[in-house]
Design a protein that fits this description.
Layout (H helix, E strand, L loop, with lengths): L5 H12 L3 H9 L4 E2 L10 E3 L12 H6 L4 E4 L10 E3 L3 H15 L3 E6 L4 H12 L5 E3 L9 H7 L7 E5 L7 H9 L3 E4 L7 H4 L2 H8 L1 H8 L3 E5 L3 H6 L6 E5 L6 E7 L5 E4 L2 E4 L8 H13 L4 H10 L8 E5 L2 E6 L5 H13 L5 E6 L8 H14 L4 E5 L1 H4 L8 E4 L2 H7 L9 E5 L14
Parallel strand pairs: 1-2, 2-3, 3-4, 5-7, 5-8, 6-7, 8-9, 9-10, 10-11, 15-19, 16-17, 16-19, 17-18
Antiparallel strand pairs: 11-12, 12-13, 14-15
């Protein structure tokens, strides 16, 4: 070995100058938790100074220490004031590598899930079922991206037996990257739909990108859970042996059938009737996934039933609320063309005299935005679901000849023109992308 070569000298410099993973992990173990936001610093946490388009976390390192952080991980040596500042080459990569390193130290199995719709609800149902038998840890909220997944892994500890990791993506290769970080042992895809078309380009692009989870699991000979009634999913796992199938077929490993979806989803699990508190037939698959996975992991059948029947949706996801004389389906957690159409189909089936809709723009559709929003308007014209209030720039640019389809470019426009006296003794559907924040409509009733 040439000890005088430039490559050796640079490598030696990097090894001693930058924090190596074993040393960084030792510092991590001294801390209570991981933080990436100085507004949420917890005492004795380890702070990662991440960078964004409009900020440099290194500039907040001193503030993090002053607020109670035990260590700060930075990638600009100019901000190193003392031994509490740990210098790495790249803070984001260090966070991700640390998460993977921690994951390898834990003697646990990881169940990963992704999909176009229903990820968060499915994750919560899975956790409700699996926690009946195992010590579980699941993604908090929607921390499902290149930062959220590492944070999810780093909050797991040795007592955990099964980790549930939600994975989101809006561009190709993101799921592949998240799989390399989390290294799942099991996985499932809720569905393939028209979501994030701006990044994926088409539904075919969605299928290919989401299936990166299946690709990882197949490469490492891990187990896949799949809905046997979904031909797109069956196509993706053709001839793969390590598959646990659920669906309506008598040959399914877990036989599940939808009984009704009004007002809530009821289904059978191997002839046993289960009554949920989730509205809409689109939630049947989310429930079915949780039941099937629970059966695979040998959770007691009565415990599975109890977990499903006592689960109550929160955070604007398929909630049925009452306010005054009105009953409301609050589904404003997020929206894309697939989930929007599913919500409308479900609302159409409701046997109610006076129905009103509040629909907000669907984001991240790229060049297809105009077509997809017009498709929803065309659906409303063909199906009389009641008075529809469409909110947002995309819906505002659509065309309609119906007097019962009202368009508002902004939420303030809706607020200024809405006659709350007309919103009495009605059944409402509120659905839109998260950025529309349509839960504000509740304050107008």
């Amino acid at each position: 070995m040439n000890f005088k070569s430039p490559n050796f000298t640079l490598g030696l410099f990097c090894y001693f100058y930058f924090m190596n993973m074993e040393s960084l992990y030792a510092h991590f173990l001294e801390c209570t938790t991981v933080c990436t936001d100085t507004r949420k610093i917890e005492k004795d946490c380890i702070f990662f100074a991440l960078k964004g388009d409009n900020f440099d976390g290194n500039k907040f390192a001193e503030q993090a220490i002053a607020s109670g952080a035990k260590y700060c991980v930075i990638d600009d040596k100019n901000y190193k004031l003392d031994a509490r500042y740990l210098v790495v080459e790249d803070t984001l990569k260090a966070l991700q590598d640390l998460a993977t390193y921690h994951r390898t130290k834990l003697n646990i199995s990881i169940l990963a899930l992704t999909g176009s719709n229903g990820k968060t609800t499915t994750k919560e149902l899975l956790n409700a079922v699996l926690t009946k038998k195992y010590h579980t840890s699941a993604t908090l909220g929607n921390l499902n991206n290149h930062i959220g997944v590492p944070l999810t892994l780093l909050q797991m500890h040795q007592d955990i037996e099964l980790g549930i990791v939600e994975m989101g993506a809006n561009h190709p290769k993101e799921i592949e990257s998240l799989c390399k970080i989390a290294r799942p042992d099991y996985g499932l895809i809720t569905n393939f739909g028209k979501a994030h078309l701006e990044g994926f380009g088409s539904v075919e692009g969605v299928v290919k990108a989401k299936s990166e989870l299946y690709d990882f699991l197949k490469e490492h000979e891990k187990t896949i859970f799949v809905n046997e009634d979904d031909p797109l999913q069956i196509k993706q796992i053709a001839d793969y042996p390590h598959v646990y199938k659920f669906g309506s077929s008598k040959w399914s490993d877990a036989k599940l059938e939808l009984l009704k979806s009004q007002p809530y989803v009821s289904l059978t699990f191997n002839t046993t009737v289960i009554n949920s508190k989730l509205a809409g037939s689109y939630n049947f698959n989310n429930i079915a996934v949780a039941i099937a996975v629970g059966a695979y992991f040998e959770v007691n059948k009565e415990d599975i039933i109890n977990a499903i029947e006592t689960y109550t949706p929160t955070n604007n996801r398929s909630q049925i609320l009452e306010k005054g004389s009105n009953k409301i389906i609050m589904d404003a957690y997020n929206a894309n063309p697939t989930s929007m159409l599913a919500a409308l189909e479900n609302f159409k089936q409701l046997q109610q005299d006076h129905k009103i809709l509040f629909l907000g723009d669907m984001f991240e559709l790229g060049d297809t935005a105009k077509i997809e929003h017009q498709f929803i308007v065309d659906y409303l014209e063909k199906n009389n679901l009641g008075t529809a209030h469409l909110i947002g720039k995309n819906f505002y640019q659509t065309t309609t000849k119906k007097n019962n389809i009202l368009k508002f470019e902004t939420f303030d426009d809706l607020k200024s023109n809405l006659n709350s006296d007309e919103l009495q003794h009605s059944f409402l559907l509120i659905k839109g992308s998260r950025g529309m924040a349509l839960e504000r409509i509740l304050d107008l009733l």
